[in-house]
């Protein structure tokens, strides 16, 4: 009998509805069939704006240390970000990405087979996670009168490196190859693997130009060419247009941090709701599953948050922990629930409670 593998998972609910959906992720892990050979243990950890208000730290050191020393992966719920600057506060998920070198944000956007009222979509947006404008190097200063301007001037650093661009494009290529393997056993709207490099090098010739040329070099590697991965490019503004006009065309999209952030949130509209869209923050040896929705304070505590993004994020985390069979079980149960279309949360036009949806998916699992 093969040895069972135990995975220790950090649970970070964060703010708002994060505290309502992260327990669903734990429950589905605990409900996985024993035949998969997996055991799970869990550790509850804190991060978020409410943690900052209580402790003065949005990301306590103990959370980072525990993840580094004790955990194989984690689930992160949601963060409430103030609309105006709060002294001492910065996003804990952005900080976690840097501290754990989770250099890729991977966001699949897919409709379930038989899902009603939406175009067939099956793409993955692979977003570089550590640099671009998100290095958060900003400053505000008084305009130089000699320039003919008055008042304040704010500027931000956009940083693109060859190292980060190469490894994110390499991950996009690997995902394209993996998706092609899955297509050999499952129906798909795509017939061959393709990676679309998104940039704005026609204007930003140095930064986006470096991303473009480095990504092309990475994807030209022999294993990708032998695997039939085709490479194309798209300027980001026309990419937005084409993404909504012909979403069924795209397979894997790779982009710098800012463009990837915008494209992935926009793509969620193609499948009906952010409440359906998962993501994973991925490094060389660690993955954090994170639903794409925010903390949704307007529905907090009402028991109507859509748990599906969290359940899919849990499966995505398992994929990057090399537990594809377990991930497939979760995906199949979620897709079956969506395809049936009877139990819909309010964001999808229904009135089903969070708990009812979770119970239905657990039954299917």
Blueprint of the fold:
Blueprint lengths: L4 E10 L3 H13 L7 E7 L4 H7 L5 H10 L2 E6 L13 H8 L4 E7 L11 E7 L9 E5 L9 E5 L5 H22 L10 E6 L7 H13 L2 H5 L3 E6 H10 L6 E4 L1 H12 L11 E3 L4 E3 L18 H13 L3 H17 L13 H11 L1
Parallel strand pairs: 1-2, 1-3, 3-12, 5-10, 8-9, 8-10
Antiparallel strand pairs: 4-5, 4-11, 6-7, 11-12
Helix pairs in contact: 1-10, 1-12, 5-6, 8-9, 10-11, 11-12
Q: Could you explain the architecture of this structure?
A:
39% of the residues lie in helices and 19% in strands. With 365 residues, it is of the alpha/beta class. The relative contact order is 0.16. The protein is built from twelve helices and twelve strands. It is globular. The strands form two sheets. It has a ten-stranded mixed beta sheet, sandwiched between helices. α1 crosses α10. The protein folds into two domains: 1-110 and 272-365, 3-Layer(aba) Sandwich (Isopropylmalate Dehydrogenase), CATH 3.40.718; 119-126 and 160-271, Rossmann fold. The model has no long low-confidence stretch (mean pLDDT 92).
Summarize the structure.
The protein has 365 residues and is an alpha/beta fold. It has helices at 18-30, 49-55, 61-70, 92-99, 162-183, 207-219, 222-226, 236-245, 257-268, 308-320, 324-340, 354-364, and strands spanning 5-14, 38-44, 73-78, 104-110, 122-128, 138-142, 152-156, 194-199, 230-235, 252-255, 280-282, 287-289.
Keywords for this entry:
single chain; 365 residues; alpha/beta; Isopropylmalate Dehydrogenase; Rossmann fold; 2 domains; ten-stranded mixed β-sheet; two-stranded antiparallel sheet; 12 helices
């Amino acid at each position: 009998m093969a040895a069972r593998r135990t995975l220790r998972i950090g649970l970070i609910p964060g703010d708002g509805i994060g505290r309502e959906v992260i327990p669903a992720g734990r429950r589905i892990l605990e409900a996985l069939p024993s035949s998969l050979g997996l055991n799970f243990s869990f550790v509850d950890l804190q991060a978020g704006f409410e943690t900052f208000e209580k402790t003065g730290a949005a990301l306590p050191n103990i959370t980072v240390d525990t993840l580094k020393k004790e955990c194989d992966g984690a689930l992160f719920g949601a963060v409430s970000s103030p609309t105006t600057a709060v002294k001492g506060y910065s996003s804990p998920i952005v900080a976690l990405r840097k501290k754990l070198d989770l250099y890729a944000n991977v966001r699949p956007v897919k409709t379930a087979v038989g899902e009603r009222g939406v175009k067939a979509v099956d793409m993955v947006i692979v977003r570089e996670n550590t640099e671009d404008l998100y290095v958060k190097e900003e400053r505000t200063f008084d305009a130089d009168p000699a320039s003919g301007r008055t008042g304040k001037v704010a500027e931000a650093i956009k940083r693109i490196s060859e190292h980060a661009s190469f490894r994110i494009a390499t991950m996009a290529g690997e995902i394209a190859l993996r998706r092609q393997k899955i297509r050999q056993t499952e129906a798909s709207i795509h017939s061959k693997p393709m990676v679309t490099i998104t940039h704005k090098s026609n204007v930003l010739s140095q930064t986006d130009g470096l991303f473009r040329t480095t990504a092309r070099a990475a994807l030209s590697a022999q294993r990708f060419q032998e695997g039939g991965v085709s490479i194309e490019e798209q300027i980001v503004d026309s990419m937005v247009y084409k993404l909504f006009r012909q979403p069924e065309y795209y397979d894997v999209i790779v982009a710098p941090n800012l463009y990837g952030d915008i494209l992935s949130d926009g793509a969620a509209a193609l499948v009906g709701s952010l409440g359906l869209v998962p993501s994973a923050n991925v490094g060389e040896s660690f993955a954090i599953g994170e639903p794409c929705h925010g903390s949704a304070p307007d529905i907090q505590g009402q028991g109507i948050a859509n748990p599906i993004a969290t359940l899919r994020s849990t499966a995505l985390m398992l994929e990057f922990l090399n537990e594809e069979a377990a991930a497939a079980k979760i995906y199949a149960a979620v897709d079956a629930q969506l395809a049936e279309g009877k139990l819909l949360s309010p964001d999808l036009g229904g009135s089903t409670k969070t708990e009812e949806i979770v119970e239905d998916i657990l039954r299917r699992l």
